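FW: tagging you since you asked about this chain on Friday. Here's the raw sequence from the shared folder, copied in full. Didn't touch anything.
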Amino acid sequence: NNVASPALAYLDGKAVILYVYDRPSLPANQCTEIRMLRETADGWADVDVTNDTALDSQPNVAVTADGKLIAVWTRMADVQPNDDPLVRYSKAEIAYSVWDPASGVWSAPALITSDARLDLNPQLTLGQDGVLYLTWLKSPDNVFPTDVSTRVLPHDDLWIARWDGSRFVGATQAIGRVDTLERIGFGVSSSGERVAVWSRDNDGNENTNDPALYFSRYTGGTWTGADRVNAGDAQPETTPSLTFTMTGKNPAEPGW
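HL: got it, structure written out here
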């Protein structure tokens, strides 16, 4: 089995699935690609999004306002077989590509980030304000678990950018030290209010297992401080998602 991490969208009523493909002809430090399965009248078309020696993973996909597909994923170039884990992490960037149904071709991968910091878990969200947003995690110091036998709490910040019709713009840190391994639950109301919800260790002690949900709102040009969603809940809280009501006027509703 050489496929993983499916991401789903619908274009003109037809399903589109992006997934990670482990190309058997390449070595382990070069082999993961992003591919697309697209539902057609004749069945499923299976095509490359990437076909190179970078390690590609964590795909997400959405439909743009002009009816194109946009894919985002985590991309590591020039990975060596014996890289130290921290060296390998520092090569992780966020990339994107656009698929035009008129040409049926994915554009060459382009980088949204380019630094020596771990960037991961990209996610696309269409806000009720009509804007397509990209969120992802960036570690400010590359502190991240590298050994399953040793528990280390991650250090990462939430970053955000928006699609302007041709590229991602306005990349900026939204919330510092969300410190999570999971994707962020993110939503935008019709008035432009942004809300993020995430799971992180509650007491900052790596030897305990007490993940809890936190949230923050973007109003008046700033993000509020992180607050617990349910401070009275002692059960582990993970994998949050977020939706607004159809009007976008009522508070966001987190789920987990």
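FW: The longest helix spans residues 85-90.
HL: agreed, and The helical segments are 85-90.
FW: great, closing this out.
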